[in-house]
């Protein structure tokens, strides 16, 4: 999603074709180039509060309409765009009916710019704010496939119709395994709105931004639509890790998505041949409130339980993701067979067990299900030899150079000092 968006983290990516293996075929991540165009749906809040005149002295809806027109004009030709609105048609007081008020006014596909701008121009702020329902509907509009989809939600208020709670809807969408990213844009500097929009974005690996001017809103929407091309990658293959190595899924190089419960251990298997190096990384998205002390651990073990290497926790540059990674090459000390010569029969691969563990604890009232999003990246490459230490010859040369530099420096300093003393005495 998990992206990107998707989706920037301490992830070691470099998908290679898997070598032919004896035994059961490993699961494979999608390796073909995407053939679908990038797809984006803009979701606009047209509820009554959008009438407020507090953005550059203009109403929020007029600023949003201008931004939409400029984005439609600048839309990359290969991008398919859809537009959905919420709170745009029902003018009554019946909340039950008003909370069903969401429509797709431009279907996802190649855009008819004239028709799209005309549809947006007729919008007038009207009703309630069913954000959760609109997000769920937008996900259906975008459909499923092998590539990432992006929703850009523009709103000035929090959902007034929950359930469904929009944050829970975002987690539900992320749990479906499709690469769906929701970016949120807030048009009002309200702490409750910010908290809800940040939660929606975090759950799907998206971003949250507050737009306080027409230029900010236009620029940010354009940036997010453009980003759809950058995050236009194959969605991770969905796998289910096991509670032990023996029945864990066998993985080929690729990117995989899973879900892990609080304080759980999940196992996966990777075949590694002599002369190869395993590179693996894992990222867990914090899509709900957790206690501040937490960590993610990635370990590689042998099938008999011996630990081969332990990964190092790494900050990913994002506050909503915790990552860890490791590298390992088989040696005879690990029980691996020696590398074959050109005339030898193929040497069986060593099965490495990867264990993803987390030390997360939910805050009071936080739902435990579904598990937190996990993205696991596997790569198997040719072993990298350890860098050789400098030999004795190189060491003596370096020592000689340092000695000569010291002598020259001392000589120059001495001459300058004698000249300065002689000059001072003469004066």
TrEMBL record:
Coiled coil: none annotated. The keyword Transmembrane helix applies. The chain crosses the membrane at residues 396-421. The keyword Nucleotide-binding does not apply. It comes from Micromonospora humidisoli. Residues 1-29 form the signal peptide. Keywords: Membrane, Signal, Transmembrane, Transmembrane helix. Residues 321-345 are annotated as: Disordered. InterPro entries: CLCR (IPR051266), VWF_A (IPR002035), vWFA_dom_sf (IPR036465). Residues 39-228 form the VWFA domain. It comes from the Bacteria. Pfam families: VWA_3 (PF13768). This is VWA domain-containing protein.
